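Page 37, continued from 36.
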């Protein structure tokens, strides 16, 4: 059996491929590899022949089509149309097609209607056996469903060898699935459950060694929904990671997702820094406690967010803050409170989104009962734009959109960004630099030089940028200097996204998606 594993393109609005300015600057094809397909590849029979094509930057050749017997693909809800196009093209060429992932989880019937042969709902480790049996016995038109949770201790190492590794900004691994919290806007617990299941430390070390042996020496994205879902097990993993990274000269930098209660575990944060973690994506969502309570974000509504951010920063971890505008119960002036919060805590990179209700989530179900969804049927939902709200909010949509654009404008201003970034890294304790960047790759040298030119010569930030860079060099450490410059690079992505949102929303008073009547 010759199987073509194809990862679909993403909508332009997701900005993760070669349309993205950071990707172009880095001379790469994409940020991260399709980890789900790589894991599926590791589960398939060893005598099957496999090839991976990432449509983010690659294309399926005629020889690929001629070679393969079957196509396996996966993707998220925003990628639905791209997956459908891929299914259609595969069927035109007479190939068997299997689809899995979040889009298939939410809309299995939609794929069957489009002549997809096999739709897998559930985790690959528990559905793969039935899928292989149906393919080998020629039984198409099947939905393979399992509510069982995979034993992560038995999950195999992904097939990284199938990748064109040099085309990615970072590699990706997964140490756990599931999250103990139940935020109503998130579908992670819907798909993976609230019980956090972890891989054993020796399994993770095997994956790190595999990447090391393949020549990887850069960032690794740990894609867990919540890296500290089980703090005791996280500590066991970090103990093994610290030993391995020290023995191998600190070859990797890590970044991941974690809930704000990370601040309650100083020993874990210290171990993360020792292991090579440099940043953590923290879901702040809102500073409005009423909005957080309605959204069931209890881990945020019951803590001092300022104090938590301060502890995480001081521990030596750069915070990337995820925030939302348009939550039920939030007060007017959300833009001002968000700008003030980022300024108080000197958080450089703040990701801002208007709330979008994903199918199947508790938020989706509540809004459906309240008849507030703008799209009550799947076809209209799948034509919507997930940069915009897809429901009627509790305050005027135009007000929310205006605050959304104003917050982006303020937080992505180059000059104020530099102020936050400098103060953020100055607040950190000294970071371990052993083995750090002994040898920069050519693309890293190029992007470093371009950033120095843009921020230090071309833009009006020149009078602020050079003194800050000098002070970091003299008073901090080389690791924080590189992280400071890297943050400047990361901002380019969000500046582009801001421009796209302005074009999408149009001038105040124009017809927008959020102003439509509810479709009943």
């Amino acid at each position: 059996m010759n199987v073509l594993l194809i990862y679909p393109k993403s909508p332009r609005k997701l900005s993760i491929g070669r349309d993205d300015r950071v990707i172009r600057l880095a001379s790469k094809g994409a940020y991260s590899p399709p980890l789900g397909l790589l894991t599926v590849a590791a589960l398939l029979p060893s005598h099957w022949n496999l090839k991976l094509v990432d449509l983010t930057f690659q294309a399926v050749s005629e020889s690929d089509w001629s070679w393969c017997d079957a196509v396996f693909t996966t993707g998220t809800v925003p990628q639905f149309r791209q997956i459908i196009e891929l299914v259609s093209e595969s069927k035109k060429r007479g190939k068997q097609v299997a689809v899995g992932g979040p889009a298939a989880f939410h809309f299995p019937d939609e794929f069957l209607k489009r002549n997809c042969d096999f739709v897998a709902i559930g985790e690959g480790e528990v559905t793969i056996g039935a899928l292989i049996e149906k393919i080998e016995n020629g039984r198409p038109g099947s939905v393979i469903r399992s509510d069982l949770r995979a034993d992560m201790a038995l999950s195999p190492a992904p097939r990284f060898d199938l990748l064109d590794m040099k085309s990615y900004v970072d590699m990706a691994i997964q140490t756990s699935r599931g999250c103990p919290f139940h935020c109503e806007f998130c579908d992670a617990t819907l798909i993976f459950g609230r019980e956090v299941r972890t891989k054993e430390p020796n399994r993770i070390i095997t994956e790190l060694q595999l990447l090391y042996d393949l020549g990887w020496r850069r960032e690794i994205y740990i894609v867990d929904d919540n890296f500290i879902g089980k703090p005791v097990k996280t500590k066991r993993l970090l103990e093994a990671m610290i030993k391995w990274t020290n023995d191998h000269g600190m070859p990797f930098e890590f970044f991941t997702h974690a809930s704000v209660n990370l601040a309650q575990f100083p020993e874990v944060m210290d171990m993360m820094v020792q292991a090579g973690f440099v940043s953590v994506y923290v879901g702040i969502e809102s500073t409005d406690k009423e909005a957080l309570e309605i959204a069931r974000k209890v881990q945020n509504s019951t803590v001092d967010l300022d104090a938590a951010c301060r502890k995480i920063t001081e521990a030596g971890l750069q915070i990337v803050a995820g925030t939302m505008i348009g939550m039920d119960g939030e007060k007017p002036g959300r833009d001002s409170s968000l700008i003030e919060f980022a300024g108080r805590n000197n958080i450089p990179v703040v990701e801002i989104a208007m709330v979008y209700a994903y199918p199947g989530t508790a938020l989706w179900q509540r809004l459906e009962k309240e008849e507030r969804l703008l799209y009550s049927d799947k076809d209209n939902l799948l034509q919507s734009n997930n940069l915009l709200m897809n429901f009627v909010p509790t305050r005027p949509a135009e007000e929310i959109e205006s605050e959304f654009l104003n917050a982006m404008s303020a937080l992505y201003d180059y000059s104020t960004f530099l102020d936050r970034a400098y103060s953020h890294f100055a607040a950190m304790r000294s970071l371990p630099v052993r083995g750090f960047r002994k040898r920069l790759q050519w693309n890293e040298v190029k992007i470093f030089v371009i950033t120095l030119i843009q921020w230090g010569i071309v833009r009006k930030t020149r009078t602020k940028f050079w003194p800050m860079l000098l002070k970091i060099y003299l008073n901090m450490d080389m690791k924080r200097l590189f992280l400071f410059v890297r943050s400047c690079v990361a901002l380019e992505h969000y500046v582009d996204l801001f421009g796209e949102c302005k074009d999408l929303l149009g001038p105040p008073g124009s017809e927008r998606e959020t102003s439509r009547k509810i479709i009943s």
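The domain at 2-145 is CATH 3.40.50.280 (Rossmann fold). Flag for discussion at group meeting. Residues 513-520 have pLDDT under 50 and may be disordered.
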